[in-house]
């Protein structure tokens, strides 16, 4: 438990008010349902992000969502923390909507002081 707590704490630090959210990285560990704006929820057993929480229950169709699929029973796994694959981390970081991005022409906002 101490190891898991330490890993998740390292991945989730810096999310307070006024702080830039940490980058999604294959070196960080995330717990089930860790949410990133514009990306979705992390499903630790599948090492990827999805639009709905892990084991989300839809009462209309009486099914559970996990790993990009629907099933009649919730997914059961001992994995509740993992690191995304490098490809997933790169795609997620590119799609996130909670970090300011500089577009083309951002160098025009730079300032120089000439002596």
Keywords:
115 residues, 20% strand, 2 helices, three-stranded antiparallel beta sheet, alpha+beta, disordered C terminus
Q: Would you write up a description of this structure?
A:
The protein is an alpha+beta fold. It has one domain. Helices cover 18% and strands 20% of the residues. The strands form three sheets. Strands 2-3-4 form a three-stranded antiparallel β-sheet, with helices on one face. The chain has a three-stranded antiparallel β-sheet with strand order 5-6-7, with no helix packed on it. A two-stranded antiparallel ribbon has the order 1-8. The longest helix has 11 residues, at 2-12. The relative contact order is 0.18. Mean pLDDT is 80; it is low at 104-115.
Layout of helices and strands, plus pairs?
Layout: H1 2-12, E1 30-31, E2 35-36, E3 40-43, E4 48-50, E5 56-58, E6 63-66, E7 69-71, E8 81-82, H2 86-95
Antiparallel strand pairs: 1-8, 2-3, 3-4, 5-6, 6-7
How much helix is in the residues? 10-25%
SS elements, strand count: 8
Structural class: alpha+beta
Largest sheet: 3 strands, antiparallel
Number of helices: 2
Order of helices and strands: HEEEEEEEEH
Q: Work out the radius of gyration.
A: 18 Å
Unreliable stretches covering 5 or more consecutive residues:
104-115
Mean pLDDT: 80
The general outline is globular
As an assembly, this protein is single chain
Strand residue content: 15-25%
Distance between the termini: 58 Å
How many structurally independent domains? 1
Strand order of the largest sheet: 2-3-4
